[in-house]
Write a structure and sequence with these properties.
Elements (H helix, E strand, L loop, with lengths): L17 H13 L6 H13 L12 H5 L14 H6 L6 H11 L13 E4 H7 E4 L2 E5 L5 E10 L2 E6 L3
Antiparallel strand pairs: 1-5, 2-3, 3-4, 4-5
Length: 164
Amino acid sequence: MAIGDPLTSKSQLSGRDSVDLLARTLYGETRGDSESRVGVAYVIQNRKNNKTYNEFKNLNSIEDVVLYPYAFSCFNDNDPNLAHCLKPDTSSAVWKNIVNLASNLSSFTNPIAAKCFYNTNTRFAELSYTQNGKLYYKFPGGSTVEISSKISIGAHMFFDYIFN
């Protein structure tokens, strides 16, 4: 199983090498935004290592993190990026850059610290609001949380929330 081998279904992602899964996720999530790519890679790493947020307590591998249902939209059945994740253009400069990042993540400076969440800047603006001097974010289909820290890089907003 070579990194980036074409797949015919999402079920074939299970059991793949962690570099392959990280690269496919980055390809689906950041193919058009090289500026925020390292940040998204570190979100994945941070989720694997984070034991504070309930949703990540049992995610102990890259596979667990990236294939967790609805965690990364590029793996949702109705997302147009799924086809790109299953059959990446392995001859493209973007794919080669992504594989290098996925293979050597620890050699790249982490620009987001321990942040575990992100969305596009546009979507973050749509889903967040300020009330009584505090910033809140409403997860699509989920809860509303108070943002503890955020940083915008490229087309993405990286953030954490206050855990109760």
